[in-house]
C-alpha cells in the first residue's frame, strides 16, 4: 500500500483516501501530495499512476552504499502488478470504446492496490468498497477478462515462437554435427587399416592376463586373515584399502585400471556378504 503526505496540511493519507481527503479536510485546494517512501511530489491526478514504490531495503540501499538490497520474491505482489498492467492497458486502448462512467470506474480501480482477481470477489469488492453498481461491476469485469485472455493468447504465441526457434537451432546443430560425423566416417572407411605395433599388442594383452589371474584370488581367506588381526573389528573402508593392496599385488599392477577397480569393488561387496566367518556391525567388520 502506497502512503502519501499532503503537502498542504501535512497529514499522512493512504492512496485510496486521497480523493476523500481533498473533498473534506483540504476541500477546495489543489491536490499536492508526496510519496512517503520515494519522497516524489505529485500534482493533480498524477498520484493515481503511482501504484508501487521502492521497498525499505532499496530506500536504505540508496542511503548506504555498502548495503545491498535483495530482490523481492513476493509472488502475490508480482501478480497484483500484472493485474494493474491490464487495467492501465485498457485505459490506454481505444478498442473498448469506454463510456465516461466505465472510464471513471477503471481510473478508480487504478488507484487501488488490492483489486481481487476472481469474479465473485471482484464484484463484492467494488460493490462494498467503491459503491459501484452491480451491473457496472459486471461490465468492468467482462472487459478485464477479455483483456486478460488477449494477453494470455499473446504470451502463448510468443512462447510457441521461442520454442520453434530453439528447436530449429538444435536441429541445425544436429545436422551440422551429423554431416561432420559422416565425412569423418567416410574418411576412416577409405583409409587403410593401421597395423598395431608390438608394444600396443602387449599392452592390450596385459590387462587380460591380469584379469585372468584375479580369478585365483582367495577372497574369503584374505578377508578373514585381515579382520582376525583386529580384536575389536576393523572399519569397512580400512578393510577395503588393505585388501586392495593385496589384490593389486596379486594381479601384478601398481594401480588398478578403471575396469579392474570397478570389478574389485563389486567382488569385495559380494564376497563380504558371502563370508560366513565375518559380520558387519555398522561401519565395523568383525569376526563371528
Describe this structure in words.
This protein is an alpha+beta fold and 288 residues long. It folds into three domains: 3-63, Dna Ligase, domain 1 (2-Layer Sandwich), CATH 3.30.1490.490; 73-183; 210-287, no CATH class. It is 58% helix and 8% strand. The protein is built from ten helices and seven strands. The chain has helices spanning 18-21, 56-63, 75-92, 100-110, 119-129, 134-190, 198-214, 219-228, 236-250, 258-274; strands at 3-6, 12-14, 32-35, 41-43, 234-235, 278-281, 284-287. The strands form two sheets. It has a four-stranded antiparallel β-sheet with strand order 2-1-3-4, with no helix packed on it. A three-stranded antiparallel β-sheet has the order 5-7-6. Helix 3 (75-92) runs antiparallel to helix 4 (100-110). The radius of gyration is 39 Å and the shape is elongated.
State the helix count.
Answer: 10
Strand content: 5-15%
Low-confidence stretches: 199-203, 205-212
Strand adjacency order, main sheet: 2-1-3-4
Q: Please tally the β strands and state the result.
A: 7
Shape: elongated
Tally of separate domains: 3
Helicity level, as a percent range?
Answer: 55-70%
Instruction: Summarize the main sheet.
Output: 4 strands, antiparallel
The rounded distance between the terminal residues' Cα atoms is 73 Å
Global Rg: 39 Å
Sheet/helix structural class: alpha+beta
Integer average pLDDT: 77
The helix/strand order is EEHEEHHHHHHHEHHEE
Amino acid at each position: 500500500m502506497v502512503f502519501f503526505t499532503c503537502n498542504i496540511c501535512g497529514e499522512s493519507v493512504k492512496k485510496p483516501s486521497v480523493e476523500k481527503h481533498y473533498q473534506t479536510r483540504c476541500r477546495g485546494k489543489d491536490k499536492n501530495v508526496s510519496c512517503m517512501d520515494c519522497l516524489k511530489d505529485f500534482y493533480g491526478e498524477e498520484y493515481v499512476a503511482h501504484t508501487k514504490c521502492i521497498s525499505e531495503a532499496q530506500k536504505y540501499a540508496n542511503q548506504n552504499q555498502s548495503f545491498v538490497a535483495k530482490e523481492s520474491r513476493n509472488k502475490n505482489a508480482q501478480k497484483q502488478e500484472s493485474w494493474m498492467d491490464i487495467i492501465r492497458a485498457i485505459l490506454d486502448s481505444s478498442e473498448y470504446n469506454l463510456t465516461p462512467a466505465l472510464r471513471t470506474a477503471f481510473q478508480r480501480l487504478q488507484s487501488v492496490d488490492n483489486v481481487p482477481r476472481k469474479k465473485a470477489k471482484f464484484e463484492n469488492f467494488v460493490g462494498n468498497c467503491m459503491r459501484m453498481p452491480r451491473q457496472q461491476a459486471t461490465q468492468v469485469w467482462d472487459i478485464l477478462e477479455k483483456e486478460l485472455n488477449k494477453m494470455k493468447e499473446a504470451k502463448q504465441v510468443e512462447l510457441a515462437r521461442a520454442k520453434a526457434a530453439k528447436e530449429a537451432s538444435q536441429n541445425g546443430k544436429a545436422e551440422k554435427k551429423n554431416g561432420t560425423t559422416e565425412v569423418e566416417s567416410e574418411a576412416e572407411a577409405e583409409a587403410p587399416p593401421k597395423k598395431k605395433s608390438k608394444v600396443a599388442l602387449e599392452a592390450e594383452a596385459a590387462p587380460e592376463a591380469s584379469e585372468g589371474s584375479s580369478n585365483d584370488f582367495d577372497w574369503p581367506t584374505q578377508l578373514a586373515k585381515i579382520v582376525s588381526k583386529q580384536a575389536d573389528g576393523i572399519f569397512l573402508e580400512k578393510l577395503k584399502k588393505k585388501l586392495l593392496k593385496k589384490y593389486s599385488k596379486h594381479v601384478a599392477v601398481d594401480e588398478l585400471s578403471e575396469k579392474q577397480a570397478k570389478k574389485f569393488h563389486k567382488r569385495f561387496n559380494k564376497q563380504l556378504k558371502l563370508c560366513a566367518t565375518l559380520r558387519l556391525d555398522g561401519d565395523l567388520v568383525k569376526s563371528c
